[in-house]
């Protein structure tokens, strides 16, 4: 790091849990952020600001007026632009030293598997169970930690699934395929309070920074937040010995 980098990241470097070594690991790190909407916006901005060296942002959607109530990486002038491109521009404005790639398409199949195998951490900022299952399977196959977030109405949740831990569950252990509930439980149909996605997205970014830098202990289990009462709850999530995704591995 040069003098400018030392100054930029000084408030993190002075933390004994991060220090120079942790910041260097961040600068050498690579995160895949899938979804550049309500959750992906704070994730992209905070990871870039914290000095994660490489970000790959993937989102096929375009910015709409109704997104601007909560998707803080985008502005009114970005309406009609691809969300990944818009978020890339916002993150680079915060930290031009980051290397950021925008993918303006849905990630699945071979492309998803290849990218998951290239990064240090994957952040699932999507809002569909089908996408979450595909991302979970790709991370499990690649042996890469997955930071999963969700937010709807006044309720949010976060979980970290780390296949490097032999006792860790995966997303399919928490929500077995076929038992996930309403596929269309999304913000577009049900609404969401604006700061909730920022809170959960920031939580996701924090966990990614910990995983890459080596600071602290990664989150375990499932944390849920009730925005109407301000209460957090934490649940242990055991690994399912019959899980169709991780039982064999």
TrEMBL record:
Keywords: Nucleotidyltransferase, Transferase. The keyword Nucleotidyltransferase applies. Residues 9-245 form the THIF-type NAD/FAD binding fold domain. Signal peptide: none annotated. Coiled coil: none annotated. Gene3D superfamilies: NAD(P)-binding Rossmann-like Domain. GO terms for molecular function: nucleotidyltransferase activity. It holds the Pfam family ThiF. InterPro entries: ThiF/MoeB/HesA (IPR045886), ThiF_NAD_FAD-bd (IPR000594), Ubiquitin-activating_enz (IPR035985). This is Molybdopterin-synthase adenylyltransferase MoeB.
């Amino acid at each position: 790091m040069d003098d400018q980098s030392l100054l930029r990241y000084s408030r993190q470097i002075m933390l004994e849990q991060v220090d120079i070594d942790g910041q260097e690991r961040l600068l050498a790190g690579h995160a895949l952020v899938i979804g550049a909407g309500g959750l992906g916006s704070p994730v992209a901005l905070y990871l870039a600001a914290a000095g994660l060296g490489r970000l790959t942002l993937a989102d096929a959607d375009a910015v709409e007026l109704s997104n601007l109530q909560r998707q803080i990486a985008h502005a009114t002038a970005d309406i009609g632009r691809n969300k990944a491109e818009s978020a890339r521009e916002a993150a680079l404005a915060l930290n031009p030293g980051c290397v950021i790639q925008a993918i303006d398409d849905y990630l699945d199949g071979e492309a998803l598997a290849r990218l998951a195998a290239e990064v240090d951490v994957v952040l699932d900022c999507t809002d569909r169970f089908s996408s979450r299952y595909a991302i979970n399977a790709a991370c499990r196959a690649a042996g890469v930690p997955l930071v999963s977030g969700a937010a709807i109405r006044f309720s949010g949740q976060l979980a970290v699934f780390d296949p490097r831990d032999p006792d860790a569950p995966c997303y399919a252990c928490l929500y077995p395929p076929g038992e996930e509930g309403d596929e269309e439980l999304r913000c577009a149909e049900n609404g969401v309070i604006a700061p909730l996605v920022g809170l959960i997205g920031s939580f996701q970014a924090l966990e990614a920074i910990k995983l890459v830098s080596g600071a602290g202990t990664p989150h375990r289990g499932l944390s849920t937040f009730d925005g109407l009462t301000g209460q957090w709850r934490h649940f242990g999530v055991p690994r399912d010995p019959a899980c169709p995704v991780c039982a064999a591995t």
